[in-house]
Amino acid sequence: MRLNLRYDPQHDFYQLIGVEVSADAEMIQRAYRQKAKEFHPDLNLDRMEWATEQFQRLTEAYSILSDNELRSQYNDLRWAYYSRSAFGKSPPSKSVRSRQSYNSPRRYATRPAYKPPAKRGLWLEKNGMGWLRPFYAGAADLMSGPYRYIMPVLGVILVINAFLIFGGLFSHPSLSPLDQTIAAENRATSTLSSFIGGVIATQTAVPSVTPIMMPANCQQYAIIEFPADGSKLNDDATALIGTVEHPNLYTYRVEAQQLGDSPINEPRLTISLRRQPQNLPERPVYHTQLALLSPLLGYPTGYYRLTLTIVHENGSPLAVCAITLYKD
């Protein structure tokens, strides 16, 4: 574990290796090998001292970016540096956008479309099913990511739920004469109770979370896949997983609103959740971690509305998806 890890803007590890912040491990390794051949001291005998210094920095950068934990810490330090550089020591004024939608002076004329990894799904194209390749690549990325241990468990749960649902639809259990008599008495009691305006309950109903109304495009552009709407916020659900894509995507933000003891209350507090920054305008992301929910574990018990918003370059929202969570 590197204890003195820090961010030096003069020697940015991503720029030194020559990759984007969103590059995967394979791209980083390939770029490192190419740079290592360029800076190796044995190939630069006329400038040995310079090549040795560059090669040491290159090796240090690769040792950090090739380790997932150290790379995550380095990205946090890198993001913190540029956020301070953007706003300074004093808090931003009302005319300055939030850090999720900060307008970088760097602009891009075009945004490249999503392309699946070159080595995944080639057999689909060879068999005339190339249109399935992006879905296959997305599933492969999800299974090779940090949540690869969760996906088999979710798959087993889905299979069990499907079995129970279809079993209930196609099974017609027959009641014994005693069960039929008890059912008839229960129907009569329920009818009488409804007539006099009362309800006889055999057990206390557990209060459920009432989901808020979401826009119609919630399932098209901004999608929250995990955690589910109405679920509890605990140590097992510390990451927001979803998909963000839109033709006019510039950036997106994730916020949590504290609602108190009822999901229909007005928001008391808005909390901006931390996420990994990208170059603006940002690229679409598919089935991956959008933000960390762990900061909410330190807040009081109650309901929280989690909102994913896709933002245009002029600051206007393009698509919104929201769910309601409960923290006990």
Q: Would you give an account of this structure?
A:
- There is one protein chain.
- This protein has helices at residues 13-17, 25-39, 48-65, 68-87, 122-126, 133-144, 150-170, 177-195, and strands spanning 222-226, 239-244, 251-260, 269-272, 285-292, 302-311, 317-327.
- By secondary structure, the chain is an alpha+beta fold.
- Among the domains are: 9-89, Helix Hairpins (Orthogonal Bundle), CATH 1.10.287; 216-327, Immunoglobulin-like (Sandwich).
- The relative contact order is 0.11.
- The model is unreliable at 87-111 and 189-212 (pLDDT under 50).
What labels would you give this structure?
about 325 residues, alpha+beta, Helix Hairpins, Immunoglobulin-like, 4-stranded antiparallel β-sheet, 3-stranded antiparallel β-sheet, about 15% strand
- Low-pLDDT stretches are 87-111, 189-212
Multimeric state:
single chain
Element-by-element helix/strand order: HHHHHHHHEEEEEEE
* Cross-sheet strand order for the largest sheet: 4-3-6-7
Strand percentage: 15-25%
Shape: globular
Assign the CATH class of the domain at 216-327.
Mainly Beta
Q: Characterize the biggest β-sheet.
A: 4 strands, antiparallel
CATH topology description of the domain at 216-327: Immunoglobulin-like
Structural class: alpha+beta
Q: Number of helix segments?
A: 8
Compute the average pLDDT.
76
Q: What is the first-to-last residue Cα distance?
A: 34 Å
Level of helix content?
25-40%
From the alpha carbons, calculate the radius of gyration and give it in angstroms.
Answer: 27 Å
Tell me what the CATH architecture of the domain at 216-327 is: Sandwich
Number of strands: 7
